[in-house]
Amino acid sequence: MAKEKDQNTKEHKNLLISLLCNFSSELKLILMAFLVLCTLATLLPLIPSSFSISASDLRFCISRISASDSVNSTTSVVKNPPESDNADTKPPLNDKTEPLNGVTKRTFTGYGWAAYNFVLMNAYRGGVNSFAVIGLSSKPLHVYSHPSYRCEWIPLNQSDNRILTNGTKILTDWGYGRVYTTVVVNCTFPATKIINPKNSGGTLLLHATTGDSDRNLTDSIPVLTESQNSVDFSLYKDDSDSDSKFDYLYCGSSLYGNLSPQRVREWIVYHVRFFGERSHFVLHDAGGISEEVFEVLKPWIELGRVSVNDIRDQERFDGYYHNQFMIVNDCLHRYRFMAKWIFFFDVDEFVYVPVKESIDSVMESLKEYSQFTIEQMPMSSQICYSGDGPARTYRKWGFEKLAYRDVKKVPRRDRKYAVQPRNVFATGVHMSQNLLGKTYHKAEGKIRYFHYHGSISQRREPCRHLFNDTRIVFNNNPYVLDTTMRDIGLAVKTFEIRKIGDRLLRTKQ
């Protein structure tokens, strides 16, 4: 029995020896690794505490290795990247430059851009041989330098010749620009040239230069592309305004802030009724058309009476009042050949004509003028007339209960205006200074507008104070009772119910 036990032990020893022989190299590696770890464990306490390897250092090393690998794995490497046409790279100033005749020459190297040379909104055809390009440009550039523009028509048919002409820039912001100013570039080609005469298509390029005397920095911008058979040349005939799609078109400025849905509701239904069936309203959303406001506009959008343009992206470019000069000029040229008259005023202003007149009769009497201005009737936006009792007063619409007119004498008040767009090349907020024809400034007996300043941005009941007098003095300012708009309220509400039903009855302030 003991003999068998000794034999088994001997066999186990032989098996262990054979395993060690077969895996000797692996065992050496394991022993070496163990030895290194023991050595590190011994030395780490002796290393100064200021020395450390952070996770960011490790990521940096790894990224360097991966970047090197990606370059090595690329099949083709560009050794000398092409230089940009606009980038004239200069070496930095050498501090060891030797003076010449005692004078050290210093150099100045510009990098990057403080503002864009040109920010395009859109371009429109203005006739058989003219175009209008609307956009923004650096305000200091136009105030202190001499930027210029050239227009080039490139036919789609390459066998036709390109045509070049100088562009005429129109600055419309009356000095109100900020980082950016609005620029309307008029591209008028020679009168003998009809651009795209065969309606075969082409592209309009705008070449914008900065006026830098040291470098010819030019940006060539494709601003308009006409496809084949896309131009209706009949629009540009002298008598084509009789076939205009709209008699009256409203071009609104940028809508921003926290607007009251109820005030917008009152404004839009009043003017849809006022201007009639052949009218249209173009609104521009710069952040002011919330979901609640849009619900108020939606019925009229569905009826084709209102269009909304989302212009929130223009907020990237710091211009006066959300770039409203650019917005109204874009609207002017977009609808220039679609409307007989275009009106410019705000959504807290209500246009009015005397009871015995109509908007059609007034416009007919003013048709010899390219533009007329409209006198303002300033109304209080917090004093209400309580002739029907407080309970009924609060249920009335804003323009019904805000019935006190400011009669303080001032040198002048802002006016709004309307134009015959075919005669206008560029426009402003309060009037146009770039037009053909006459302007009429004494239309107060024919047409006026009631201004409820600030009421559109109040998300609450507008009545802060109630009065029942015909004349009052409030905050040292004289007011008189004016029920002109109040008397129209019932007719406006009835019109709304007839056109879109009662879907807006629960509109919030």
Automatic annotation (TrEMBL):
UniProt record, GO biological process: cell wall biogenesis
Membrane topology of this protein: Single-pass membrane protein
Keywords from the UniProt entry: Glycosyltransferase, Membrane, Transferase, Transmembrane, Transmembrane helix
Annotated spans, Disordered: 73-99
A single GO molecular function term of this UniProt record: glycosyltransferase activity
Location(s), subcellular: Membrane
Keyword Flavoprotein: no
GO CC terms: cytoplasm; membrane
InterPro entries according to UniProt: Glyco_transf_92
Superkingdom in the source lineage: Eukaryota
Enzyme nomenclature, EC number: 2.4.1.-
Transmembrane domains' residue ranges: 29-47
Family (UniProt): Belongs to the glycosyltransferase 92 family.
Name of the protein described by the UniProt record: Glycosyltransferase family 92 protein
